[in-house]
Amino acid sequence: MKFSVGPYELKDAYEKKLRQRVTIFREATKCTKALVNTFVTTFGVADGMHKSIVNSEVTLDELFH
What we know:
Blueprint: H1 12-29, E1 38-41, E2 56-59, H2 60-64
Parallel strand pairs: 1-2
C-alpha cells in the first residue's frame, strides 16, 4: 500500500526493487504461476516510464464508494 498526496510516481530504483522481490518470491516458493503487482494507493499510480510493472491498481475511491 502506498500513500501520497497525488498519484504515486514510480522511480527506477523502486521498479528494480519490485522486480527483485518477484525473483526472490519465485525462488523461495518455486512458484511458476503469473505474479501480479497490484498497487493499493490513495490516488492511483502516475503514468510514466516505470508504470509498466503495475498490473493493476486500486484507489481509495474504489474501496469506499
